[in-house]
Structure formats: structure tokens, C-alpha cells
Amino acid sequence: MLTTQVQQPLTLTQQPSMAPVSGTGGTSSLGTAAPASGGLAAAATGMLASINAKLRASLRRYTNPSPPGGPPGGSGGGGGRSGPPAGPPQPPPGQPNTGGQAPVAVPADVKAMGGLPAAFNGDHLRADDFIEEVKGFLQLNQDVAGYNSPIKKVAFTLTLMHRPQITGWKHNVGNFLDTLDPVHNNIPDIWNQFLHEFAEQYQDSQKENRARAQLENCRMKFPEIDDYISWFEELCRNAGYTQGNNEVFHLFIKGLPTDIMEAVFMSPIPADYQGLKDKAIEVTRSRMLVKGILETRG
């Protein structure tokens, strides 16, 4: 299913209070403090505002962030840049429903696993992939001591950024980390703010426009219906389209071979994208079956 998420801007005056990430033994945990009140709430808000100001000052941007752009799917540019991301989502109240299964115990001495993400050299076309690789590596090793520390996450990511054209930005973020207290300032918002600043600096602003142009020329090569669907949906995500968008329906049809398209529109006609996709798969498999039978006849 194709989905599009629109991030909401971070409002420092309305942030929930967040506890510093602590670690004991071989693991570290990310937690949220109980709702603060009075002086505690003011202190938490003041710390977040101070951290945000320090990071922006380190990056030589002293003004407030621009208003977030509209939802993806609009024309021109890259759809606008959203404001800083909010803190991590809060877990639902109570214990999760495990269906009677016992949670897997975390080993006491966990070693880092997986290969390191490929180094980032400032290529805007690779910025999103780079960050996703970093997130995947950190997620895989979140129970390894230190890997769940927001400050260390930023420091780790900086070690993967090379090439002269990004040295200045990397140096400024490093200077920002030097101003933080490794205990009291080690809150999840450090990582969230870093991801926002990275996106503003290196995100591919033409990603949506390029994906839409590719969608116009996306064609299925019979009988590779699965490859066509996978590539088509990936382009739709990059273009900011959702499954319910009428344009998605028409672009998918446009890319089908003529005989498949004609068969898809035989009664009953699909009413939505999912139905269209399912029928295209069914028609393609039927054509392949018939072709196989005819070939065996000699």
C-alpha cells in the first residue's frame, strides 16, 4: 500500500518532557519522564530551546526555521521542507498484547552486528538512502551499549561523512556536540534535530519532480508484472502520491501493454487501485498460462 506521511513541525514551547537516555551494563534505554509540571516543565522546555538554538548557531543559521511545506503531491520544487520532527511517538497506555508469547530476553553482552553503512560524500541523490542505512544499522544494534545514545548516534553518523565539500557542515555539528552535557543533554531530541538539519542541508529537492517524470514513462515489459508493480509503487512513494490518488490509477493503466490493458477493462471493471493491480496480475498470469500451453503444442 502506498502511503505518504507529513511530518508536523516541532514546537519547542509545546514539547513533552523527555528524560535523558541512560545506560547501564551492556544496554542503554530510551525513556520518557512523567509529565512535568510547574518549574520542571519550564526547565524541560528551556533545555530543548537551548539545545535547538545551539545546533542552529553551530550551523550558522540564527533564524527560526521556515514554515513547513504543504503535503506532498503539489507541483514545483521538492514539495517544501517540513519543520523539525517531533519527538519519538509515545507508546500506548498499558502493556502491549503479546498474544501469550514471552518477550525474547536481551543478552547481557551484545556485540555490534551488520556491515557499516556506505560513507556519505555529499551526493544529494544518496542522502535519503544514506540516512535509512544509518537508521537500519542503529536499529539492528539498539541493544548494544552506546548505540541507543542520541549524542552517540549523531557522532557515529558524522564518522561516515567524508569528502571536502561536507567537512565544514560536519565540523559545525561536531562543535555543537562539544557544547552538550553527555548526561543531562542526552535526550532523544538531539537525534531528531540532527535528522532535520541533515535533511535541510542534503535532501534531494528534485526527488518528487524526477519521480513524476519517470512515472510518465514507466512501462511494463510482459510478463514482468511484479517488477512493474514494485518499480511503479516505489516511484509513486518518491513522487508523493497516495494509493487513493486518481492519477496513480491512470498512470498504472498507462504503463500496461495494450492487450493487458484491454483485458483489465473487461467487466467487471476495477473500482480502485488495489482492484486494478490484482486484475492486472490475474490477466498477466492467464496470458502466461495460455502462452505456455500453446508452446507445448509445438
**Number of DSSP helical runs:** 10
Count the strands? 2
Largest sheet: 2 strands, antiparallel
Overall geometry:
elongated
Rounded mean pLDDT score: 79
Uncertain runs with pLDDT below 50, 5 residues or more? 1-17, 24-37, 61-83
User: Which structural category fits the helices and strands?
Assistant: mainly alpha
- Report the β-strand fraction as a percent range: under 5%
Q: Please estimate the helix content.
A: 40-55%
Task: Report on the architecture of this protein.
The structure is a single chain. The protein is mainly alpha-helical and 298 residues long. Among the domains are: 40-60 and 116-205, no CATH class; 207-296, no CATH class. Helix content is 46%, strand content 2%. The chain contains ten helices and two strands. It has helices at residues 39-58, 127-140, 150-159, 167-178, 188-202, 207-216, 225-239, 246-254, 258-264, 273-296; strands at residues 22-24, 27-29. Strand 1 and strand 2 (27-29) form a beta hairpin. The longest helix has 24 residues, at 273-296. It is elongated, with a radius of gyration of 24 Å. It starts with 21 loop residues before the first strand and ends with a helix.
